[in-house]
Write a structure and sequence with these properties.
By secondary structure, the chain is mainly beta. It has three domains: 31-155, Immunoglobulin-like (Sandwich), CATH 2.60.40; 161-248, Immunoglobulin-like (Sandwich); 254-340, Immunoglobulins (Immunoglobulin-like). The protein has one helix spanning 2-31; strands at residues 53-56, 63-66, 70-74, 85-88, 93-98, 105-112, 118-119, 124-125, 130-140, 149-155, 161-166, 171-173, 176-179, 185-190, 196-203, 209-210, 223-233, 242-248, 254-259, 264-266, 269-272, 276-283, 289-296, 303-304, 309-311, 315-325, 334-340. Strand 26 (315-325) and strand 27 form a beta hairpin. The chain is rod-shaped. 22% of the residues are buried.
Length: 357
């Protein structure tokens, strides 16, 4: 009898020990914090955790998993979902929503970067530029805890910078910038955080259009034109409208060759006296004359005109001239042809027979 009673007491003690050990394990599971299991992508950015949440039923002590998910939306109800990262500015807010198919959602909690978890009540806004991480999860009324989700957000409050580029340099004089209608234009835009989404431009009062870097544009209207432009980054920041006034010079210079002594027409042939001086003059009412080029009949290529041309030898001559203005417009070639006779006439005296009276 003593042995049997001893065995019963030992069995009861083992049962109580097992219950105590199981209760301690249950408490440990309930107190355990479920941290986000973020992995790294090929680019080194954290990805959202995909492991289901481990939960413990407080009544039975058995563990289970749940894959209920919370949906993250912006204040305009634009779903963000499982995006790895998005670009925003501080005008953007985030709304947390959760659904549960059984015991209903109790609350949603979140934290920004390394802050403490707080219960979600109002839309989330981020004011500090740079990378921020929003970690969030929902809990239902039965105590089931969703696995943490992670959203990486790049806050960019600074508009991009943008400048106008021209294939040919402008010619500037007296505060005006001249160029030709063959010149092409493009833009250089830069944004340090989110990157440039688009550049838009308009010429004079036309509607803005998106610039394509593979399609530089021209301004072909003669006279003064205003190129207006702006850039927008991937966070929605838009630069202030900038503008550049350019004057399109589509008119070529006018050229003329002026002899010091006028040429003369003798029996259909044009003559110049020996030692005559020829001056070449060019005018341009827009950007001005850059240079004058001349060529004599015995020269193969045009050369810069630096001083008047003097002809001292006899023969047939042709002087050609052209001018180029400061934006590259080239005049038509003008020319003058003439003969120079260097041989003086020969005279003689002859006695005339007097007629008899």
């Amino acid at each position: 009898m003593a042995v049997s009673a001893y065995k019963r007491i030992l069995a009861i003690a083992l049962v109580f020990a097992s219950i105590s050990l199981f209760s301690q394990e249950t408490e440990n599971l309930e107190e355990e914090s479920v941290e986000p299991t973020a992995t790294e992508s090929a680019t080194g950015e954290p990805r959202e955790a995909t492991e289901p949440a481990s939960t413990v039923d407080r009544k039975t002590g058995t563990s289970s998993t749940t894959s209920r998910s919370a949906t993250v939306t912006t204040s305009e109800a634009t779903p963000v979902g499982d995006s790895n990262e998005i670009f925003i500015n501080s005008n953007t807010t985030f709304e947390l929503r959760a659904t549960d198919d059984s015991s209903m959602v109790d609350f949603i909690e979140y934290r920004v970067n390394n802050s403490d978890l707080i219960k979600y009540t109002n839309p989330i806004s981020l004011s500090t530029e740079g990378i921020s991480q929003i970690t969030y999860r929902s809990v239902d009324k039965a105590g089931n805890i969703e696995a943490f989700k992670l959203l990486t957000v790049i806050v960019d409050n600074t508009p991009p910078t943008v400048s106008l580029l021209s294939e040919e340099p402008f010619y500037s004089t007296e505060g005006s910038s001249y160029t030709s209608k063959t010149n092409t234009f493009s833009f250089k835009a830069k944004d340090e955080l989110s990157g440039v989404e688009k550049v838009e431009y308009a010429i004079n009062d036309s509607e803005f259009q998106t610039f394509s870097k593979d399609n530089p544009f021209r301004v072909e209207k003669d006279g003064t034109n205003l190129i207006r432009y702006t850039a927008t980054d991937n966070a929605g920041n838009k630069s202030r409208e900038a503008s550049v006034a350019v004057i399109i010079d589509d008119k070529a210079p006018k050229v003329e060759i002026l002899p010091a002594t006028p040429l003369v027409d003798i029996d259909g042939k044009i003559y110049s006296r020996k030692g005559n001086t020829f001056t070449v003059r060019a005018t341009d009412a827009e950007s001005g004359v850059r240079r004058i080029m001349v060529k004599m009949s015995d020269e193969k290529e045009f050369r810069p005109y630096v001083e008047p041309i003097v002809v001292n030898t006899g023969g047939e001559f042709t002087i050609e001239a052209k001018a180029i203005d400061n934006v590259g417009n080239e005049s038509e070639v003008v020319s003058t042809s003439f003969y120079v006779d260097v041989n003086p006439p020969q005279s003689e005296i002859k006695k005339i027979k007097q007629e008899e009276q």
